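Purpose: get a first structural picture of the assembly so the mutagenesis plan has something to point at.
Setup: two entries, given in the order below. No constraints added.
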Amino acid sequence: EVQLVESGGGLVQPGGSLRLSCAASGFTFSDHYMDWVRQAPGKGLEWVGRSRNKANSYTTEYAASVKGRFTISRDDSKNSLYLQMNSLKTEDTAVYYCARVDSYAFDFWGQGTMVTVSS
Amino acid sequence: DIEMTQSPSSLSASVGDRVTITCRASQGISNYLAWFQQKPGTAPKSLIYAASSLQSGVPSKFSGSGSGTDFTLTISSLQPEDFATYYCQQYQTYPLTFGGGTRVEI
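Result (structure tokens, whole complex):
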């Protein structure tokens, strides 16, 4: 059974940093691209970024709203995906989901972790 | 960026109704279109990819169609568990973008 479990959310002040993790199980993590998607309270879904797999050199893509502030990484030996968030802004407040990519589309999602940026 | 426009933004329906949701892309995306269902307080669930292919385990009452710029999601016979918000998403071009959502309610 595919499982994605996010962790690391919490309350952080504007300008601060936070690192989210996504623990994967039930599939060969190293084969898949993995993405982060967020959802601000009461709002729609917003794509954050992507980590390609080893076969594609672990390259990454980012939304313009987070580029230069957020960094996506992964550790295939730990079946884990990470989102390092720096210079956080109040508008980064959201539930952050990790999602597995298969045939270029999302097929499985984690349950999400809440990040609140507030003073 | 490719803008995804869903209509309607909300709709009221009854159990047993056939429901159709439309998604329009601001430029052609071939069939790189997915649909998701989200219930309050829960993560999105993937329903359809490649515009018309059902994800594993998704019941056949859900169907998708379209190509290029115009797409539809149809629920053939609405059941109580189908009341939710539905999102389309294009994955042809970065940044990946979502529609604003369609809330299906009683």
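Residues 70 and 85 of chain A are 5 Å apart (CA to CA).
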